[in-house]
């Protein structure tokens, strides 16, 4: 999860988030190169006397017309690749349904006969020592690590958004509509998120907690809840 005075992204815990962080760094390097070039040219124009080369230079005009097009292509190609990767859902090992309410989440494990629960934020007065305020829930979403997970997101009342930054997941929950996305947790751990759509007075009290565990631990957990 994020730390105080952190400037960068959270540590990537899924292949999609790794691609997003890499593209972010790529775009920043392109922006840095552009800013450096513009600053150099501005400094050169201020320091040097004007001449006919700066007034009428067809070669320079040709370059600064073609170069931005090349830069846009270098940004568009990896961006489109990531967009297609985020939309692709191929034979998930587990399907999870998340339903947004004012102001809590309901979860259904559709691959199991009777495995569902509501997830509420733990109030600060009842929060165990060492847990995070406004981020901890009474029931965590438990998933097996290194397994493709499909999540179906909807809402029961108003707009919500199911988001886990470290997994690179953010899907709007819209009443009467099913949105879906997928992710793979590449390591065990606890990942925190929140509702990312303003949904009313208690919008900031809808945390999401995903716990990634080895497959045998997940099987033990699911068998305890369904027994």
UniProtKB/TrEMBL annotation:
Topology term for the membrane: Multi-pass membrane protein
Keyword annotations: Copper, Electron transport, Magnesium, Membrane, Metal-binding, Mitochondrion, Mitochondrion inner membrane, Respiratory chain, Translocase, Transmembrane, Transmembrane helix, Transport
Cofactor note: Binds a copper A center.
GO cellular component: mitochondrial inner membrane
Cofactor: Cu cation
GO molecular function, one term: cytochrome-c oxidase activity
Domain (Cytochrome oxidase subunit II copper A binding): residue spans on this chain: 91-224
GO terms (BP aspect): ATP synthesis coupled electron transport
UniProt-listed Gene3D superfamilies: 1.10.287.90, Cupredoxins - blue copper proteins
Job description of the protein: Component of the cytochrome c oxidase, the last enzyme in the mitochondrial electron transport chain which drives oxidative phosphorylation. The respiratory chain contains 3 multisubunit complexes succinate dehydrogenase (complex II, CII), ubiquinol-cytochrome c oxidoreductase (cytochrome b-c1 complex, complex III, CIII) and cytochrome c oxidase (complex IV, CIV), that cooperate to transfer electrons derived from NADH and succinate to molecular oxygen, creating an electrochemical gradient over the inner membrane that drives transmembrane transport and the ATP synthase.
Protein name: Cytochrome c oxidase subunit 2
Protein's organism: Pteroglossus azara flavirostris (yellow-billed aracari)
């Amino acid at each position: 999860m994020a730390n105080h005075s952190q400037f960068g992204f959270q540590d990537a815990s899924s292949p999609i988030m790794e691609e997003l962080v890499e593209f972010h760094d790529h775009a920043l390097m392109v922006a840095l190169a552009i800013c450096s070039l513009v600053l150099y040219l501005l400094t050169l124009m201020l320091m040097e006397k004007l001449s006919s080369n700066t007034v009428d230079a067809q070669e320079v005009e040709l370059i600064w017309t073609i170069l931005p097009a090349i830069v846009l292509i270098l940004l568009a190609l990896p961006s489109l690749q990531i967009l297609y990767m985020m939309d692709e859902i191929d034979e998930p090992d587990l399907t999870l349904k998340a339903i947004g309410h004012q102001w809590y989440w309901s979860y259904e494990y559709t691959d199991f006969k009777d495995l569902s629960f509501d997830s509420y934020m733990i109030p600060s007065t009842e929060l165990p020592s060492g847990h995070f305020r406004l981020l901890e829930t009474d029931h965590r979403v438990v998933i097996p690590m290194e397994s493709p997970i499909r999540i179906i997101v909807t809402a029961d009342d108003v707009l919500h958004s199911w988001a886990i930054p470290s997994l690179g997941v953010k899907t709007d929950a819209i009443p009467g509509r099913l949105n879906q996305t997928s992710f793979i947790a590449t390591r065990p751990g606890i990942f925190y998120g929140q509702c990312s759509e303003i949904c009313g007075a208690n919008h900031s009290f809808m945390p999401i907690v995903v716990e990634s565990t080895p497959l045998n631990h997940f099987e033990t957990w699911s068998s305890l809840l369904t027994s």
